[in-house]
């Protein structure tokens, strides 16, 4: 899976990122890599990405291929008299990508069964971070770092126990399913498939649909399944 890379440099790089992204930048030592989110001021998603600290004020960010432009535009939005520069780069983060429940997050079936969301599929401008599940929140969000743009919605959802309108769920079906298939219960549409690998998929569904529930997906049956554990 292609990843786009962005370099972040400048004497204000660390402090600027600390106020813009969900990860605690100050807690990252040189050589550390972590997942993070950057959000719209409304709290909805712009990007899920990795941040790697090269030096005190030198960072690499990587994001799903094709989404660097949106990430760059958002990060540059609030730069004003700040010594920080963002540029696309061919340099790669020198740490393999990891996600709980996968040996290889680039394997589409493993990604789906682990409930790992992807930009442009599960994650769009309309996504509330909590909809991507507690695993993503635990990996990418610090609740102790202080203020960052968009944090209010994340904090509010967390304080309510993570209840969101349309959580992303893992589907295990009895046959092949396709992106765009409707997820139905008793003939009523409750969601839509966003990623597939044969007979498994991810879908955004109404919160009334719970783990273990049987649903219909297109012309086949499926079960809402807990993401694979590590």
What's the SSE pattern?
A: EHEEEHEHHHEEEEEE
| Class inferred from helices and paired strands | alpha+beta
Characterize the biggest β-sheet.
6 strands, antiparallel, barrel
Alpha-carbon Rg, integer: 18 Å
Find the CATH superfamily of the largest domain.
Probable tRNA modification gtpase trme, domain 1
The low-confidence parts are none
How much of the residues is beta strand, in percent?
A: 25-35%
Q: How many individual helices?
A: 5
Q: What report would you give on this structure?
A:
The chain has 230 residues and is α+β, with helices and mostly antiparallel strands. The protein folds into two domains: 3-159, Gyrase A, domain 2 (2-Layer Sandwich); 168-225, Beta Barrel (Elongation Factor Tu (Ef-tu), domain 3), CATH 2.40.30.110. Helices cover 16% and strands 32% of the residues. The chain contains five helices and eleven strands. The strands form two sheets. Strands 6-9-8-7-10-11 form a six-stranded antiparallel β-barrel. The protein has a five-stranded antiparallel sheet with strand order 2-3-4-1-5. The radius of gyration is 18 Å and the shape is elongated. The mean pLDDT is 96.
Highlighted features:
230 residues; five-stranded antiparallel β-sheet; six-stranded antiparallel β-barrel; Elongation Factor Tu (Ef-tu), domain 3
């Amino acid at each position: 899976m292609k990843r786009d890379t962005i370099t972040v440099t400048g004497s204000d790089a660390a402090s600027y990122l600390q106020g813009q992204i969900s990860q605690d930048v100050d807690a990252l030592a040189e050589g550390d890599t972590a997942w993070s989110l950057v959000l719209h001021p409304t709290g909805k998603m712009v990007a899920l990405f990795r941040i790697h600290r090269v030096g005190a004020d030198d960072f690499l960010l990587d994001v799903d291929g094709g989404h660097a432009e949106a990430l760059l535009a958002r990060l540059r939005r609030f730069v004003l008299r700040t010594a920080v520069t963002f540029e696309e780069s061919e340099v790669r983060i020198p740490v393999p990508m990891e996600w709980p429940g996968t040996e290889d997050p680039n394997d589409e079936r493993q990604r789906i069964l682990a409930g790992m969301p992807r930009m442009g599929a599960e994650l769009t401008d309309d996504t509330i971070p909590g909809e991507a599940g507690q695993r993503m929140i635990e990996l990418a969000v610090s609740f102790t770092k202080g203020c960052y743009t968009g944090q209010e919605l994340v904090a509010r959802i967390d304080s309510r126990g993570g209840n969101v309108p349309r959580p992303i769920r893992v589907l295990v079906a009895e046959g092949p399913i396709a992106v765009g298939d409707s997820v139905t219960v008793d003939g009523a549409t409750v969601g839509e498939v966003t990623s597939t690998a044969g007979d498994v998929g991810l879908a955004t569904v109404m919160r009334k649909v719970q783990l273990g529930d049987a649903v219909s997906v297109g012309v086949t049956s499926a079960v809402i399944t807990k993401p694979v554990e590590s």
